[in-house]
Every structure is written in C-alpha cells, then in structure tokens.
Design a protein that fits this description.
By secondary structure, the chain is α+β, with helices and mostly antiparallel strands. The protein has one domain.
C-alpha cells in the first residue's frame, strides 16, 4: 500500500516507519508520552510480536510513516471517531505549542 499520511489511519494498521527497521502495529491515537509529556498521533507495538512491555511502545506522528503495509478496519463508527480525534489532536498540539512559549 502507498503512503497516505495526511489523515489518521485506523487502529490495527501495520506501518513501516522511516527510521525504524521493524514494522509496527498501531493500537492507539492521540497519545501522550508519559516521560516527555509530548503529544503524538500514534502509539504502536512491534509487528508481529505485539505488546511486550512499555519499553517497546513506539510513539510517532503521521509524518514518520514511510509505507502503510496493512490498513485497519474502516467502519462507519471509525470514520466518526477519526474526525473527533483529528479535532482533539489539533487542539492539543496548538495548546502544546502555546505552553512551550
């Protein structure tokens, strides 16, 4: 599959990241990394292993996606939720930038 990183992709999607050798599977969106307090578009785990420990969680933004290897399920409720998550992310990132100043 080609790279389409302008809108969020569904949970369950498997992607290849630009600077990570192993594919990862997305299991969350609009995530705050506890250690840095930074907001990311996605959290993922190594594929095919899945969740090993918190040390293996990968936080990243859509710009880091090199290729979508498998796209997760696009249900009607997913499309509604995606729209809301996009709005929430935009607001959170604006607030994060304001807080940095």
């Amino acid at each position: 599959m080609s790279n389409s990183n302008t809108t969020l992709i569904p949970i369950g999607s498997v992607v290849k990241l630009k600077k990570v050798e192993k594919p990862v599977m997305i299991y969350g969106r609009h995530q705050i990394q506890t250690s840095s307090k930074r907001i990311f578009d996605y959290i993922a785990v190594p594929y095919p292993e899945g969740n090993l420990t918190d040390d293996f969680n990968v936080f990243f933004n859509r710009e880091s996606i090199d290729n979508i290897l498998y796209r997760g399920y696009d249900s009607p409720i997913e499309l509604i939720l995606r729209e809301q998550v996009e709005k929430d992310l935009e607001n959170s990132k604006k607030k994060e930038k304001t807080d940095e100043i």
